[in-house]
Amino acid sequence: MPLNRILLYVHDVEKIIRFYEAHFGFQPQRDPEDRIVELVDPKGGAILMIHPAGKAQKAGQVLVKLVFDIADVPAFCAKAAKAGLKFGAVHKADGYVFANAKDPAGNPISVSSRAFRKGK
Fold first, then answer.
1. What is the layout of strands, in order, in the sheet containing 47-52?
2. Rounded to whole angstroms, how far apart are CA atoms 95 and 10?
């Protein structure tokens, strides 16, 4: 079975929605009778389910990183920086590059060209 949904617990739901809309093109889908907002990429892929965190939950204390497939990581990072999203250094790995950042709730995110490696 494919993994199609990732649930993020966040303290500021609207701020997270704006972040993933602005930087990654996700579109919110809301049901007025549901407190979870689903963020959907119009090009497909996993759905991010944004769930309000309880008061006792601490931000960014999960062992999950969201990885977005980006063919040109340095160009994406430069564009993101102009829009207010600062990534760390671009790291070279086995035939691909990646860079890391955090969303406003402290969840780790990465942009990676791993999916575009030649011969893989």
1. 5-10, 47-52, 37-40, 27-29
2. 34
Q: In Å, how far are 54, 95, 108 from 40, measured between CA atoms?
A: 24, 29, 19
| Alpha-carbon gap, residue 12 to 52, rounded angstroms | 7
Counting residues of the chain whose pLDDT is more than 70, the rounded percentage is: 92
Q: Which residues pair with 37 in a beta bridge?
A: 50
Tell me if 103 sits within 8 A of 20, measured CB to CB: yes
How far, in Å, CA of 89 to CA of 98, rounded? 8
Bridge partner list, 10: 52
C-alpha span between 9 and 56 (Å, rounded): 11
Residue 41 is predicted with a pLDDT of 95
Structure token pair of residue 51: 């769930």
pTM of this structure: 0.77
Please write the tens of the pLDDT for every residue from 53-106: 888 777 766 557 888 999 999 999 999 999 999 999 999 988 889 999 999 988
Copy the structure tokens of residue 49: 């389910």
